[in-house]
Amino acid sequence: MEKTFVLLKPDALQRGLVGEILARFDRRGYRFLALKLLQTTEAQAAEHYGVHKGKFFYEDLVKHLTSGPVIAMVLEGSEAIAAVRKMVGATRPPEAEAGTIRGDFGQAGLRNLVHASDAPETAAAEMAIYFDESEFVASERAIDRWIFEDGE
Ligand code: CMP
Is this structure's pTM higher than 0.85? Predict the structure, then answer.
């Protein structure tokens, strides 16, 4: 079982796509380990996107992320980091495959609705920006044995 961090950006909330996006993760069988609505601070946005500092889109990215409420979550599942990135789709929605979240609902790189971690190190770092581990609610579902292999 692997944990990954996902953030629904302000455009997802403004457009009424929260239920649609959460349903995709839910239906696929991911477990929600943590989930919350928050207003991202400048400091959180800068830490989250520090790797992009200096790039042409950085200022607009921070401005967008802090422009309204977001929903942060930690999902658990099999090879969740790579698999969730596939569900989210390519960074720029015009390049995202149909069937992905960005390919089905997005138009522009800075309005691409969702962020998902790209590696174990970034997943751990991003979770720590938005959550204290005391907020994690670990659980097992009766249906897990029909979703995950034994021992996962
Ligand atoms: P995200 O997956 O949250 O990670 C970094 C974000 O920077 C990315 O989604 C986009 O919103 C934005 N981004 C990255 N590359 C570009 C680009 N070429 N043009 C516009 N925005 C970009």
Answer: yes
CATH number of the CATH domain containing 113: 3.30.70.141
Q: What residues of the chain score a pLDDT lower than 50?
A: none
64 is catalytic: no
The answer to the question of residue 87 being in a domain is: yes
pLDDT tens by residue, 10-24: 999 999 999 999 999
CA pair distance 99, 102, nearest whole angstrom: 8
The C-alpha angle 103, 109, 115, rounded to 5 degrees, equals 75
The pair of three-digit structure tokens given for residue 72, joined into one six-digit string: 């942060």
**Which residue from 71, 91, 92 has its CB within 8 A of the most atoms of ligand 1, so it is best to mutate?**
91
Q: Which residues line ligand 1 (CB under 6 A)?
A: 52, 57, 61, 91-92, 109-110, 112, 115
